């Protein structure tokens, strides 16, 4: 009787590894977009920068512009977590102090400068602009769920819908305001970081007016 053979080949990728690959592709895409423009960048070049084939890149993303989605989404996920963890009765200032000290999301992650460069490109690249706006469009329901839970209201309550839209618009406006004002050295804590924190505080404080 012949023993059955086990499966051969590479083991399946873990979800954590798939996420890291997506981030590697995103960083490579941004570097190429910044250095040579979106039009001149190909899937083959993006894949080569991270040791992958273009075919593999297209397994993860449907277009070269969409390759940057993870860098946009990380900031959105951080804000969603911030809203979810913001306790009723605590001021926005206190909640933001805790969040910013933890250096999460847009203000402290290793991709802060990368995201800044990417947001600047959305001003002149329609394909990237579409991805940027779609990210915020998809984020708004997540903001709504977090705010509804905090306020003890149904997620389809009109007050929740309006507050989520306000936070969404305030966040996008703050990041764009910061990014479009100029560049700073990657990885360094500079006056530009303080400016971003101040801009986020101001924008979210305006959106938080009337939030119990």
TrEMBL record:
Is DNA-binding tagged as a keyword?
yes
**UniProt-listed PROSITE patterns:** HTH_TETR_2 (PS50977)
Origin, by domain of life? Bacteria
Q: Which residues bind DNA?
A: 42-61
Kindly give the InterPro entries that the UniProt entry links to this protein. Homeodomain-like_sf, HTH-type_TetR-like_transc_reg, HTH_TetR, MftR_C
Keywords for this protein: DNA-binding, Transcription, Transcription regulation
HTH tetR-type domain spans which residues? 19-79
* SUPFAM superfamilies membership: Homeodomain-like
Signal peptide boundaries: none
Question: Under what name is this protein listed?
Answer: TetR/AcrR family transcriptional regulator
The species this protein belongs to is Streptomyces niveus (Streptomyces spheroides)
Starting at the broadest rank, the lineage of the source organism is: Bacteria, Bacillati, Actinomycetota, Actinomycetes, Kitasatosporales
């Amino acid at each position: 009787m012949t023993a059955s053979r086990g499966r051969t080949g590479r083991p399946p990728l873990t979800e954590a590894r798939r996420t890291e690959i997506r981030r590697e592709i995103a960083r490579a895409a941004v570097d190429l977009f910044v250095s040579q423009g979106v039009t001149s960048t190909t899937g083959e070049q993006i894949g080569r920068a991270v040791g992958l084939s273009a075919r593999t890149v297209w397994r993860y993303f449907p277009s070269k512009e969409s390759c940057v989605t993870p860098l946009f989404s990380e900031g959105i996920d951080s804000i969603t977590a911030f809203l979810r963890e913001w306790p009723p009765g605590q001021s926005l200032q206190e909640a933001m102090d805790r969040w910013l000290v933890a250096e999460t999301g847009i203000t402290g992650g290793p991709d802060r400068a990368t995201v800044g460069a990417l947001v600047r490109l959305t001003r002149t690249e329609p394909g990237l602009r579409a991805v940027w706006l779609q990210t915020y469009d998809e984020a708004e329901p997540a903001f709504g769920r977090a705010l509804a839970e905090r306020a003890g209201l149904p997620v389809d309550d009109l007050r929740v819908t309006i507050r989520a839209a306000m936070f969404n618009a305030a966040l996008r406006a703050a990041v764009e305001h910061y990014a479009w004002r100029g560049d700073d050295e990657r990885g360094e804590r500079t006056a530009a970081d303080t400016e971003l924190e101040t801009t986020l505080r101001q924008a979210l404080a305006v959106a938080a007016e009337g939030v119990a």
